[in-house]
Structure formats: C-alpha cells, structure tokens
Amino acid sequence: MTQPYEPMPADWQRVLCVVAHPDDLEYGPACAIARWTAEGKFVAYAVVSRGEAGIATMKPADTGEMRSAEQLRAAAAVGVHDVDFLDHPDGTIEYGLPLRRDLARSIRKYRPDILVTINFYERWRSGDWNTADHRNVGVALLDAANDAGNPWVFPELADEGLEPWSGVRFLAVGGSPESGHAVDVTDGLAAGIEALAAHAGYLASLPPDNPMGDVAGYLTTKLTRFGERFGHVPAMPFEIIGI
Prior knowledge:
- 36% of the residues lie in helices and 16% in strands.
- The chain is α/β, with parallel strands linked by helices.
- Helix 2 links the parallel strand 3 and strand 4 (82-85).
- The radius of gyration is 17 Å and the shape is globular.
C-alpha cells in the first residue's frame, strides 16, 4: 500500500488502549495518545500481562515488578493515569473465555468510544512473525467489544456493577500492515519519546545491535517515514476496524 493515509476520525472522547505487554504502546501509538490527552480526551490502558517473561536474565517476579513500574511512568509521560494490569501470564496468553471476560470487564468499566491496540496479524510489516500474545489479545479484544454490550454474555459482570456497553465504534490498530489512516503526532512526539525512554530497564536488556540505544532517533525516524504518506509530518498509522 502506497496511497496517502486518511486522517483518523477524531470525533470521539474516550479511548481504551489494550495491549499484551508493558511497552507495546510506546513504539509509536503513545505519540498519538499524547496528542489525544493534550486535546482533553480520556485515555485508559489495560495491559494484559506484566511482561514478566521478557528478560531471560531476571526472575519473572522481579521483571514484572520493574516493567509494571516502567509502564506507569510511560503512561504518565503522555498524560494517562488509569492503567490496569490484567495479570495474564506473559508469553503464554491464551485466547479464550477468561481473556474475553477480562477485556469485556475493562470495556464496561471505562465505556470507551473507541479501542486501540497494536498489530495482531501473523506478521509485522517487516515480514517477521508476530508473537502469540499479540495475536491472541487482538482477536480477543474484537470479540470482547461485542461481548461487553451483550447482557447475556458474562452476566456476572453486571453483578460487579458493570452494566453492558455497546458504545465502541471501532478498533484502531497501530502499526497494522493494513493501515489506511494516520494521526499527526508532531505535538506528541516529544512526550512519546519520554514514554519509550521510561522503559529503560527493559530496553537495556535488548541485544546490543537493537536500535533502542537512541530512542529519540528511532521514533523520530520511524514516524517521519510514516509521514511521507501523510503530508510529510510525523505520523502514526492505524487500521480502522468497525465494531
């Protein structure tokens, strides 16, 4: 796909961002989130795991504690203060009713107009294989968006005081290979860089040849490249999937 991106719809006020791991949002989508919070939109995060299996040289309990704290700092950098960890096991997140129920619970809790996640297709833009965690969370999120509005699916959520919510209009998939829309992140880039840099402990564990040694350069280059299809401004692309 080489045609210009269309502007992502902006006529909404509340968004729930759902990802598998701490740091998933910080490789681009957080720059759009910084713009949205600056505009007065409400943004909440639901992070399915604590990323505890992400560092081979650290015990999972220590890694999960560190990465959770880093995610809270990253979220605050872009103006997000509602962050829930759903505590599914990192690396082995399964599609199924428990995950759908937890995601439906989050949707009923925050009552968003739209949802945001990251690419959950089999492959990344590079052609590399995507992880099972990302794939399973994305599909479960689409299903949970419908579950959240059905009073007869997970009726126990109503017993928790969470009434059905059918107000989700669409899912925006950040970095999808099928992206057709984008957000101008000129005003969110600096905060997005701060958010990614907040994951310092995790980034330090990556192989030395990874590009995260220069967080600012990595994000600026990536979003500038995307912007070649969006008026030559830094941009974050999204695929829009109707609910």
